[in-house]
Prior knowledge:
- The chain is an alpha+beta fold.
- The chain folds into three domains: 2-48, no CATH class; 57-107, Orthogonal Bundle (Arc Repressor Mutant, subunit A); 126-244, Roll (Thiol Ester Dehydrase, Chain A), CATH 3.10.129.
- It is 40% helix and 29% strand.
- It is built from seven helices and eight strands; from the N terminus they run E-E-H-H-H-H-H-H-E-E-H-E-E-E-E.
- The protein has helices at 19-24, 27-48, 56-78, 84-91, 95-105, 110-122, 167-180; strands spanning 2-8, 11-17, 137-142, 146-152, 187-196, 205-216, 221-230, 233-244.
- Helix 4 crosses helix 5 (95-105).
- The protein is elongated.
- The N and C termini lie far apart (107 Å).
- Residues 65-120 form the HTH deoR-type domain.
Amino acid sequence: MLRFGTIWRGRAYSREKSWTELNDKPIADCEILRNILQSVFKIYILLLVPSHNTTDGDLQMRRNKKERQQLLIETIKQNPFVTDEELAERYSVSVQTIRLDRLELSIPELRERIKSVAEKKFSDEIRALPLDEIIGEVIDLNLDDNAISILDINKEHVFKRNGIARGHHLFAQANSLAVAVINDELALTAKASILFTRSVKENERVVAKARVKSVDHTNDRSVVEVRSYVGNELVFKGEFEMYRS
Length: 245
């Protein structure tokens, strides 16, 4: 026995028919059902098999990618310190897309860009200590005036149990920046007054800003104030009295 539906005067109903009756009477119904199934099958195939023809959308996507990569080159050239997250937000794409663009364009990641800029710009300017002994990456420096460094807090900087950065890393960043900003081949920390204002966690970026408040050549002393931030939030502040020869 076969159960099927028949359309009769706008109403759908079901009944049982033998194969003999099926061959004798409802042939028109079977033809309608077969046509419907063929149409559904064709739609299903179209959905499964993508078109290989290049559409205007494909060309537009390629143009957008080419334009985006050109803008990416120009943006990083103007600001080597821009992050992948900032670039992704600017161009309305994912961070992974930006990373793939950088790989295609052979543009190094942020840390390598910062290191490269620092080596080119500051290696000959800093007098008090070698560039690689500074904790963090120097991104701006004016001797006996001001300086800025950044430190990305990674797994090696934090306590395992809570993911909070160890305080001596923040102190070392600030202290080494205070040494670096002194325009003297011999600069040593004579005294320091520091305060941690909030905990810093893994994957946060600490921006330390040093400012030379005073220079006393008579007593061979300079006072440097350092403030460190995560975003706009103050996380550390210190005042360093520096000995200079």
